[in-house]
Amino acid sequence: MSLAKRLLPIGVVAVLVAAAIPLVVHAAPKKGPAAMVAAAEPDAVEAGLKVLKAGGSAVDAAVAVQAVLGLEEPQSSGLGGGSFMTYYDAKTRKVTAYNGREKAPAGATPELFYGPDGKPMPKGQAIVGGRSAGVPGAIAMLFLAQSQHGKLAWKDLFDDAESLAANGFIVPRRMAEAAASRAPQANQPDAVAYFTKPDGTKIQAGELFKNAAYATTLHNIASQGPKAILEGPIAEQIVAKLHEGPYPSAMTLKDLASYQPKATPAVCRPYRAYTVCVPPAPSGGPAVLEGLGILQRTNINTHPNDTEGWYLFSQASRLMYADRDRYYGDPDFVSVPMEGLLAPDYLDARAKLIASDKAGPPPGPGNPKGAGPRAPDQTKEPGGTTHFVIVDKDGNAVSMTTTVESIFGDGKMVGGFFLNNQLTDFSFTPKDIDGAPAANSPAGGKRPRSSMAPAIVLDKQGRFVAGAGSPGGPSIIAFNLKVLVGLLDWKLPIQDAINLPNLIAFETIYASEPARFPTGVVAGLAAKGVTVRGGGFGEGSGEQGIEATANGLRGGADPRREGVARGY
Ligand code: DON
Predict the structure, then answer these.
(1) For the chain, N or C: smaller number of CB within 10 Å?
(2) How far is CA 27 from CA 123, 248, 252, in A?
(3) Is the CB of 425 under 6 A from ligand 1?
(4) What is the atom index within ligand 1 of the atom nearest the CA of 385?
(5) Number of H-type helices and E-type strands within the chain
(6) Least confident of 15-24, 348-357, 455-464, 503-512
């Protein structure tokens, strides 16, 4: 059966076959979109498109998109969170990685998440405690990127978000569901007060909702830049808020005011006929490159969406996670053996560990060049993140994953936005029993390891091929690997690549979406020792992507969220 038949319902295939009979000679098809935005909320997409149509660049539009997402998808990202952005500059064909990852306050210690009993505290306690918050970096990062690649004035990028906040927006389904959920963050006093109507009931999807405080904060960010939240009254409120409760933060005004985002060259590696670029550690990008590097040494490209293809995917994924969990942390604090992990001879050796007949026991981490002794990782990641991709009419592209860590961050609000609980992305146990340090142990001023891996794909001439990424906590690197395999190996349109089943293979876990596989694949995988089961081990996906085709841009948005991809 052809791939198209496997992926499309029978009726659609019949229409396509009928359409292939040339009854009428048509004029050449109209060229598709030259600029596009793909994001998890339609109002955010519209705000981004408006900026693009006004002559703004992809980075200008990213500012507008983030401002609306922080209002309409506050469970996932916002002014109080952090992010990684991969940026493609069409003129120079250079790819830059922007790091807006939250930082631990200078006073944070390796025992950040130890309770009074001297043991790592339960995750449920940590996620709502003041000490879970890092210095927010998303807005500072966008400000830096916009100063380098913006075309419009910073102050003009917030109009849509400000007006939606002041005049009201229609409550999206996912926001209402998150507000009504039993997640501890949604039940913190600030979150309850924000989402409860005067009649005592929670907001419902489809209702008009306003956030005057958010409008004011945006107004101040528009005129003052990130200083509006990292200094002055909002910063004072952040510090006060984080010192409340049983597990207070060490955050000071100085921690906030001294936050610096980073811009570095992206890490780019060849993958078949392409080059895939991602941010360096502490992002999850290099782990995705390792997964691709292993798969490049297999024939997954000749097994589109079949049992063998998914088997190879699952085994490469296990190897990728084993190394990621052992070696990745903030390279400003620990040496991450990235070159060793991505070296051709190391990838050869890792790929040879994939048994041809049947999955073996969980693979351990390898021993790449440059690796020091590292303790097993004790990082526990939940959900609260989003991804968007933007291409402007000049061909510049943004692929950005942005997060407050878990649903509504820590549930605490200041200035109409939620504060993050990103520091729970650190390993709760800083050392193993032999004293070997965990790469991702907490420390003052350190950034926690992330799975976020916003990707940009180029062709061999350095031209834009695609941008893609996803939220999903620890599942992100598997989600992104899948989209890239679907697009680059299986040659699927980006939307079909997104629609493929998610499969997170980790140690003995094969978390997936069994109903999305073609007939026979689940049974075929089981025969090879890969028993897939429903349910992930991170949050669900929110894969968004844009690809360049001979006929203009083509976008995709994850049907598992509420996003859209629109262009002009
Ligand atoms: O940076 C990370 O890896 C996590 N804090 C991301 C959390 C996430 O993706 C939640 N999912 N929607």
Answers:
(1) N
(2) 61, 67, 65
(3) yes
(4) 12
(5) 20, 20
(6) 15-24
How many residues belong to the chain?
568
Q: Are strands 169-170 and 464-469 parallel, antiparallel or unpaired?
A: unpaired
In the DSSP assignment, the letter for residue 30 is P
Q: Is the CB of 384 under 6 A from ligand 1?
A: yes
DSSP 8-state code for residue 305: T
**How many C-alpha atoms does 558 have within 13 Å on its Cβ side?**
25
Residue 28: pLDDT over 80? no
Contacts of residue 452, defined as CB under 8 A and 6 or more positions apart, other chains included, come to 83, 84, 283, 284, 385, 401, 403, 469, 471, 476
pLDDT at 414 over 70: yes
Residue 536 has pLDDT above 70, yes or no: no
Nearest CA to ligand 1 atom 1: 450
One-letter amino acid identity for 95? Answer: V
Q: What does pLDDT average to over the chain?
A: 92
How far apart are alpha carbons 85 and 455 in whole angstroms? 9
Cα(535) to centroid(ligand 1), Å: 16
Euclidean distance between CA atoms 288 and 119, whole angstroms:
33
385 is catalytic: yes
> What is the number of the ligand 1 atom nearest to the C-alpha of 406?
10
472 lines ligand 1 (CB under 6 A): yes
CA distances from 18 to 11, 264, 536 (A): 11, 51, 40
Q: CA angle, corner 385, sides to 8 and 114, nearest 5?
A: 135
- Asked if 529 and 505 touch (Cβ cutoff 8 Å), the reply is no
For 346, the token pair is 């190391």
Instruction: Identify the weakest region by mean pLDDT among 33-47, 252-266, 427-441.
Output: 427-441
Please tell me which residue in 298, 385, 402, 403 is annotated as part of the active site: 385
Neighbours of 119 (CB within 10 A): 12
- The SS3 call for residue 507 is coil
Whole-number Å distance between alpha carbons of 407 and 470: 15
Distance, CA of 489 to CA of 482 (rounded, Å) = 10
